[in-house]
């Protein structure tokens, strides 16, 4: 994932944002590549359905950072007199490139086009970037964007809470058995209620909610889950609000250049978002798969507080040395993410007598006395370090790959 819409660090950049972006990418690599999926610390796994773990925050953090970056970068360009039409064209082209890289990673390494998954992390980033960036160019007033963000969050909640779900084969089977099938053949119980011959009551159960139904009937390609995709169509709508909250935060940072003012804005904004999000979560539970409105607010709150801390340490106290890995990862984020996706085939393939590199590393760590979960984490950290090396070389040579 790139540091949309910017690339190489510049003297006038908010270094804290670059570092936060890089550490977010590093965290994504770590949670995606454990030594053994059967031996992972709880905080490094996504919540199965309702709930919230640190891992659930990683993707929303990145989308929030995308929004902040949009506000910082395009505010400067507009102030310099850049042509909005030309900027719009560049935004569309960049979004198409990011989407294409996402499709490439989904096809890698077999390129089985018949089973292609159209949805994905980079694809969602591309859509969110394009839509939110164009909205920023078209609706530059903070009040308008704030109202739009609130409308998206409330509208999405209303859709899932009040719109009945049409019955289809998946729902018919769930009504008959009380169960649905998830990824890797996992069977899960669901509690749904028929309301007539053609629909079931609005619900937030896996596979039978409105967002899942929309995926089955409007999203082409294969799904990450059996019958819906966590990066599906309807759930992408509230992810726009995640980036829009980033845009509003970025606009505040442009307006308030004093460090103290910035920390106040981030701190107060973060606390308010957390209170609203956790409060709403009692009625509209935090859920990454559905990207619920409460989930949006909670992640925005933690992202603001994280950015406040990074700003205080890096841009305030000048503690740049500890942030160096994040700055390196953040400057070539799309390269790091792409390398991590492609090299995964190498570490998981059975090269050595039926054993993979990741498996050998896991065995070595356990032989050295590490418990299974710690050994699994060591494997993930080593893999992140391997991905870091070529990105660091690019950084040293001042090569910043941007789409």
TrEMBL record:
Domain of life: Bacteria
Domain Heparan-alpha-glucosaminide N-acetyltransferase catalytic: 13-157
Signal peptide boundaries: none
InterPro entries reported for this sequence: HGSNAT_cat (IPR012429)
Keywords, alphabetical: Membrane, Transmembrane, Transmembrane helix
Protein name: Heparan-alpha-glucosaminide N-acetyltransferase domain-containing protein
Transmembrane segments: 57-79, 91-109, 121-139, 146-165, 233-256, 263-284, 290-314, 326-352, 372-394
